[in-house]
Write a structure and sequence with these properties.
Elements lengths: L2 E5 L5 E5 L6 H7 L18 E4 L1 H4 L7 H7 L9 E3 L12 E4 L9
Parallel strand pairs: 1-5
Antiparallel strand pairs: 1-2, 3-4, 3-5
Length: about 110
């Protein structure tokens, strides 16, 4: 099974099983990682904002215009920011590393 690593707000790295076909948001919830996801993955908020490790960012599909619009509302936006609900685990992403931002803003 693929793995991924969440870097929590305090810097703690947590490697977890990342089942194929689940979103980063779903994987986080499955393992008790502190990501809100207020809209439950319907692309209507920015509370599942994650910062993708730069070495992985180029391997991701490009964000949709809708995702980019929601990211504009995210707290602590970075160059490699994405919404966890839009990142779907594939074999290609085995080992993915994402960092949780300093906070979130629910402006959905």
């Amino acid at each position: 099974m693929p793995k991924m690593t969440f870097v929590e707000r305090d810097g703690t790295r947590r490697e977890v099983d990342a089942p194929l076909g689940l979103s980063v948001l779903e994987i986080a919830h499955k393992h008790g990682v502190d990501i809100e996801g207020a809209c439950e993955g319907s692309l209507a908020c920015s509370t599942c904002h994650v910062i993708v490790d730069a070495s992985w960012f180029g391997k991701l599909e490009s964000p949709t215009e809708d995702e980019e619009d929601m990211l504009d509302l995210a707290f602590d936006l970075q160059e490699t920011s994405r919404l966890g609900c839009q990142l779907i685990m594939t074999d290609k992403l085995d080992g993915l590393v994402v960092k949780l931002p300093a906070g979130s803003r629910n402006a959905g």
